[in-house]
Amino acid sequence: MCTFCGSLASDRYWGWTVAEQSTDTRKPRRWLTKGVIGTFAAGALLMAVLFVGFDFVAHKTKSNEFCTSCHSMTGNFAEYQGTVHFQNRMGVQAGCSDCHVADGGLPLLADKIRASSDVFHHLIGTVGTPQKFEERREHMAHVVWDKMKANNSRECRSCHSFETMDLLSQRPGARKYHTIAMKDGATCIDCHKGIAHFLPVTTDANAGATKLQDAAKAVPASATKLFAIQTTPLFLTADTKDENQGRVMPSAPVERIGQEGDLIKVKIAGWRQDGVDKVIYFAPGKRIMSVALSDDTAKKVASGASETDAATGQKWTAASLEAYVKRDQFVDKSETLWDYAKGLMTVNCGTCHGEPDMNHFTANQWIGVVQSMQTRTSMDAEQVRMLTQYTQKHGSDMGTGQKH
Known about the structure:
This protein is of the alpha+beta class.
C-alpha cells in the first residue's frame, strides 16, 4: 500500500495501472504516423524543389547564348546562321535546343545527361580546335542522326508534320519524295541531313576502298571470272609499260585466260556501237562502259555478230579483246563491289533525300542523274564511276541475266 495515495504500488504507477501501461499503444502509434507523414512531406517538398530547380536550369541552358558560350561551338553556330532555320522570310527561328533537346519530361532529362558527355569532351580538349572538331565531326553527326532516327525525328515534328503539309504547293521534287516518305513510313532525318550544319567528309568510302583492295589480294588463282575494283590500265603485251593503251572501267567483267608475273591475261567481251570504235560497252543499247581504248588498241578488237537496237535503230556489234591487266585490281565476286557501291549511295545520296529506287531510271538515264548530283557530294572521280556503274547495271531496263 502506498502511504501517499492509498493505492497498491503494484497496481498503479504515475497515474496508470500496470494493465494500462501494457495495453495503451496510442502514443507510439501517433509518433509513427507523424514520422511517416513528415518524411513523405519532406520528400515531396524535396522532389518539388528538385523538379522546379531542374526545370529552371534546363530551360536556362537551352538558349542559343548558353549553347555557344563554349568556344568549340562557335564554328557550328556560324554554319547554322547561314541556314533558313536561323533566318527566313517568315521570321520563325529554330534554335539549338529546338533541334537537339526534348521539350520536357524524362526525354529532356535524358538529353541533359547525354549533354554532360559533350561538356566533358570540351573540358579535356577533344574538340578544342577547329582541326580536332573536323576530325570528330563525322562521329558526332552520326550520334545525332542515330538519336533522331530512333525517336522518329521528334524535335523536327514539333514544327513539321506530314498531316498539315500542303503537298500541292511544294516543288515537284519535294512533293515526290514527301509522298514516298509518307508511304514508306520514313522519318525526317532519313532525308534531311546537313540542313543546319556542314556535312562531314565521310571516311566510310575510304574504308570501303581499302576493303576492295584487301579482297582483290585474296582472290584465288583458280578464279576465272573477275571484276575490276577501279579504273585500271590494260596492256596489249605482258612486257609493255605503256599505260595509255586502254582503261578497264570499275566493275567491268573479264575472263582470266593466263598469267605472266604480276599481270594476268584476260579476255574482255562486250559490244561496240556502230561508229564508236574506241569503247566496249557492257550490253547492246546500254552505254555502260567496260573498256576505253586507244586508237591502236581499238584495231585489235575482234568483232562478232551484229544486232539493231529496237528503241534507237542503232547497230551494235559483239566485240572481244585479249589483253593484260594487273592481277591485284580485280575481285571474283560482283557482290563485293556492290556492297561498296551501296555504301557510296547511302553516304552521298541518302544524306539529302531518301535513297532512290534503282528502278526509277533506265541504265542510260542513270548517267545524267549521277552526274547532276555529284557536285553536291564529296565523291571523287573514281567513286563517281563506281556509283554510275552500280546504278546503270541495276537500272529498270536491265534484265536479270544482265546484272552480274
